[in-house]
Design goal:
It is a single chain. By secondary structure, this protein is α+β, with helices and mostly antiparallel strands. It has one domain: Alpha-Beta Plaits (2-Layer Sandwich). Strands 4-1-3-2-5 form a five-stranded mixed beta sheet, covered by helices on one side. A hairpin with a 5-residue loop joins strand 2 and strand 3. The longest helix is centred in the N-terminal third of the chain and has 11 residues. The relative contact order is 0.32.
């Protein structure tokens, strides 16, 4: 049986206004993941991805590259243990931007 994983990832660098969120949605959907991506007011992008652990790991690795105009400097990943952050089978979507003080 393959393990499941749910990770919250913050992406740092030139990742806003370069198509990063739409790129993440496409990557996550192609991997069969559930979750969301959104811009954060501090210039980062937040991703919460849930699904088969190998697929979540693949998304994290792909996020280091991103779309052509992006320049990723750092990823900050945290496993989500306490509760399901997203419902299984809910799909992967882009959410509205959020202020940094309302997350974490």
């Amino acid at each position: 049986m393959t393990a499941l994983g749910c990770w919250q990832i913050f992406v740092y660098g030139r990742v806003q206004a370069v198509g990063y969120r739409d790129w993440v949605v496409g990557q996550a959907q192609s991997l069969g993941l559930d979750g969301f991506v959104r811009n954060v007011s501090d210039g980062t992008v937040e991703i919460v991805a849930s699904g088969l652990l190998p697929a979540v790991q693949t998304l994290e690795q792909r996020c280091w590259t991103g779309p052509a105009l992006a320049r990723v400097f750092w990823l900050d990943r945290t496993e989500v243990h306490d509760q399901p952050a997203v419902a299984p089978g809910s799909g992967f979507r882009r959410l509205a931007s959020v202020m940094r003080t309302t997350i974490r």
